[in-house]
Each structure stands twice: as structure tokens, then as C-alpha cells.
């Protein structure tokens, strides 16, 4: 078995196996070890045993370990990129970006420290805040960005002294298993454990009394289940959930210039991005022009197996998502006008033609729900107040973009958008030192930045009087 679990420093076969499908063909191309509950228990116990020594090791030594992991990943960069495209479907260039980002994240978060802070110091004494690791952290990751999302959890969590049980999504377990193989050679036993399931162990992880925190990225529905089952042990939670981000185009732009940016924001990773543009709002004066430009881009986009040179949009990652997106598109056909795409490609694999739909009511599923696929509704608006209200009329609040030649005007709109991040004239710019997270039902907590690192620790206040009071 090439892809194994990592438990207590050893690569082990699973109690059973899991077939992994190449979404570009729809056929099984690899198998991976699959854990049972007993193996999950072993992994959690190993992480618990490893915690005291890892926490006591000190930041610099942990940073050195993370740098070694980054070096090892760099050494197998091509293998990671190809495997990521194979299991996830994204074009190779996007895999390269993701794997490169993961390596950089290991180095960046390894470098950051959370030193003892002095809140106040007087001649009578001082008040300090110490940040201590939590214990065993579970990283539960989804299938859209299996590598970078793992590393956004693993790198800060380990850097500040936690140990970890990582569980990838069952349809994209291989890159996480490959990372486990590297970690087996580098990390002390138990510091990182990799468990692969078939969507059956997540609940056990989130309810387990020896896990101190769950850092979860996935759908809002599953996030709610995580929160529910974590309640019994009052676990710390970071939840990065779904979004339905609005792209608001202001009336001062050039349609030809802005359309490719908005198209890319909607179609990157075949739209399977929590922060993808999922609803486009265009001013009435430019509505036809923007619809036409987006439709043209959709018709011209190269949709192909991500391993093939020139592929711009790959397949959907799994059959369930593919069927869901096709269903949403079918419903949109009845309510609006499809001006590009609108169907699956006539080939094997989970390919859907990039789809642009205009003239939909705000109540359409493609507008209200998170489609998570290469299909975008273009909606018309008349006033800024109206478009802000419609953009905010959502249970989600993850990201959003504003497109304008007047950055100050863009800022004024951005100030009124209810979400965790708003970009003006750019998208997906997410430096590691900038916190990221959701408003409303898009999540709880932050990742990245010092805010994100702090979520892998607890604050302890030490309040010292220099002398025992008389
Ligand atoms: P999707 O619904 O798009 O398949 P999910 O949000 O369900 O994605 O999956 C994200 C991650 O959550 C995956 O690793 C999945 O195995 C895991 N998961 C699924 N159900 C649960 C659960 N009840 N508790 C914890 N994790 C879960």
C-alpha cells in the first residue's frame, strides 16, 4: 500500500482501504489506507503522549522541524503537484501555486512566536500574558484545497506547541498521506498523525475528550454538526465555512477590462473555492456588456484534465458535487437565460462547461445558495444602496469583491459589506500575516496572522505583586 496512515510515528496500513477517483476520468486511480475507530483512538493517544515533550521543546526547535518538513516537501514538489491535480482535478499551475504556498506556510508560521507579553508593569508588580498550547488539535480539511488548507492549520498549530491528528476529506486523502510519509521521517512520533476515513470518523474526532481543539474547513452544514458534537467537551473551534460572495461592479469601469478579473474570481478551481465570486452584480448601464464579456470568456475557456497543458478549468472534484451543480444549473434554466455553458461536457469525468446565467430573480438557487462550481449568475442593479442591501441579504458573509476605477468609492462600498474579507480590484490576495475568516454563518474564528496563531493557544494571565502586601 503506497498511501498509508501515520500513527505514532509509523506508517501503517488501514483497517481497510479507500478507492480514490481521478475526477478527470471518473475512474479509480489509487487506493489509500482507511482507518477504523481503533486506529483513530491510537492516533489520538499518540498525539496526547507526544504533547508534553513537543510543547516543552521550545519554539526554535519546533521551527527547525517545520523547516525540515518544508525542505522535504520542496524535494518532492513535482510529485505533490501532480498528485494534487490527479486527486483534486485542478490545473497543474494551480496545484503548483497551492503546494508552493504550503511550503511557504510551513516556513512562515514556523518562524512566528507568541512570546510572553507584559500587559502592565508598575513599581509594585506586573501583569503578564502567557500563550500556552492547547494539547491535541484536530485538523479536518475539505477536498477543494487539500494541501494548503492542511498547512494553514498544521504549521501554526505545531509551531506554538500543539500536536495533531489530521483528517483529509475521503475523496482527496493522498496528498495528506504523502505529507504523512515525510513527517514520519522527520517529526518525533505522535506529533502529527494522519487518519483517513470515509466520512465516518469526523464525528468521533469532534466529540473526543482528548482533543482540545478542532480546526475545521468545510461546508456550513457540516460545520454546524462539528459545533454540536464539540459542545460536550467545550472544545475550542475554528470554523471556516461556506460563502456566497458578491462581486459588485461599479459603473465607472471598462467592461472588457473588468470581466476577465471577475471571471477568474468565479472560475478559479472550477468555482470550488469558499471565497470564489458566486454572484456578480452589474449596473444597469453596463449589464448587457458585462454579461456578454463574461459569456465570451466562458465559451473560450479551456476546460480539460488538469494535467494537460493549457487546461484552465478542470473537472468538479467529485460526483456528488458535479450532480449538485448540474441540478442548480437546470433550475436556473427555468428562471433565467443561460448565455454560456449550461451542461456537462460530453466526455468522461466530472466536467461542466463554464456557465453564465443572466436575468435570474434573487430567489433563484444559483443566487441564494453556494453553488461551488463553474456557474455564475449575473444580476442587474440600479443603485449602490440597493446592491449593498442585496449583497448583504445572505446568511453567509465570507468574502466579496468590488471593482471600480475609483478606489475611494470602492472603499466606501467595502465598508458596508458584511463579510470577513472584502477586496477592492483584486481577489484572493491572502498574505500569511493577514487574518482570514467569516462573518455570519461563514464561520467562527480566524486563521492566519497572529490572530489565527493565537487560536491554537490559550491565554494565561500571570499577575505578580513584588511583595506580599502588609
Ligand atoms: P462536503 O459537504 O462539501 O463534502 P464537508 O464539509 O462535509 O464537505 O467535509 C469537510 C470535511 O469534514 C471532510 O474532511 C469530511 O470528512 C468531514 N466531515 C464530514 N462529516 C463530519 C462530521 N459530522 N464531523 C466532523 N467532520 C466531518
From TrEMBL:
The source's superkingdom equals Bacteria
User: Which Gene3D superfamilies does the annotation name?
Assistant: Aldehyde Dehydrogenase, Chain A, domain 1, Aldehyde Dehydrogenase, Chain A, domain 2
Keywords, ordered alphabetically = Oxidoreductase
CDD domains (alphabetical): ALDH_AldA-AAD23400
Transmembrane region(s): none
Kindly give the InterPro entries that the UniProt entry links to this protein: Ald_DH/histidinol_DH, Ald_DH_C, Ald_DH_CS_GLU, Ald_DH_N, Aldehyde_DH_dom, LUC3-like
Q: Does the keyword field hold Oxidoreductase?
A: yes
Task: Report the coiled-coil segments.
Answer: none
What positions constitute the catalytic site? 240
GO MF, one term, reads: oxidoreductase activity, acting on the aldehyde or oxo group of donors, NAD or NADP as acceptor
| Residues covered by the Aldehyde dehydrogenase domain | 16-461
Q: Which family does it belong to?
A: Belongs to the aldehyde dehydrogenase family.
Protein name (record)? Acyl-CoA reductase
Q: Which organism is it from?
A: Faunimonas pinastri
